[in-house]
Amino acid sequence: MICDTTDTPECLLRDPVDLFHSGHIVKICAPMVRYSKLAFRTLVRKYNCDLCYTPMIVAADFVRSVKARDSEFTTNQGDRPLIVQFAAKEAQVLSDAACIVCPFADGIDLNCGCPQRWAMAEGYGACLINKPELVRDMVRQVRNQVENPRFSVSIKIRIHDDLKRTVDLCRKAEATGVSWITVHGRSVEERHQPVHYDAIKIIKQNISIPIVANGDIKSLKDAENVHHMTGADGVMVARGLLANPAMFAGFDETPLKCIQDWVDIALEHGTPFTCFHHHLMYMMERITSKQEKKVFNVLSSTPAVLDYLSDHYGV
Length: 315
Prior knowledge:
Elements: H1 16-19, E1 26-29, H2 38-45, E2 51-53, E3 57-58, H3 59-64, H4 66-72, E4 82-87, H5 91-101, E5 107-112, H6 117-121, H7 132-145, E6 152-158, H8 163-176, E7 181-184, H9 197-206, E8 211-214, H10 220-230, E9 234-237, H11 239-243, H12 256-269, H13 273-283, H14 290-296, H15 302-313
């Protein structure tokens, strides 16, 4: 078995459900459009990230098109444990998608939290928190058709204004056999308002399966505080990891070693320039001056970026 993480026993736990019984808070890289792809997952696994999600994939396209499968889902032997997140609204389609990825991943996650207008208009994402029966049917179908009993099925949700409805949704999902639930502590309408950690705590108190807290976690200290505030079994981080892929290892800002690791990994994986450059812009946000940003952010080729990093940072 290839294990790309630092020397922690967690990297030996291929079954993600086992992570939640490992005695410590599970540190998770969120599904991020364009960003949580294989190269970035490889990077954060080096810095104590226990579990990674793919970006959200539309299940219907994935099932229908080989081209979509090739472009949307890339993995390798060291990319475990791995959760593939799908947007879906039909039980059979989600189940077919799960069966396709089952040999290459450790579980799937049903996106019930994306608040973007296009997703809601198509019947995906956060509109599913108002359709608990449909969520139940989709989870049940995956459970019935995926033959591997250790393959996890999770959901990621936002909260209702009336929290009783969220607790009801979570109880129904638990009864259907969901492995864990990730709760983004905002409603569909909320974007940058404070996260309702009290709501996550109430959900955790009412549910027996693991709960993962998501929203505004930007450092390892934040992760520990949210764990203590909510009782959550895991924390999921998006923007905090983009800004500092080494945050789960306790670094307050991106260390130069991490930037060097990203350059090596991205070049090895053939990461497209725009993605390679954008990640560096996020990582260097806190360690560069305004003047440096003006220069670095308009660089337009990989050699130019490599020369800049070499000249200014010795990377």
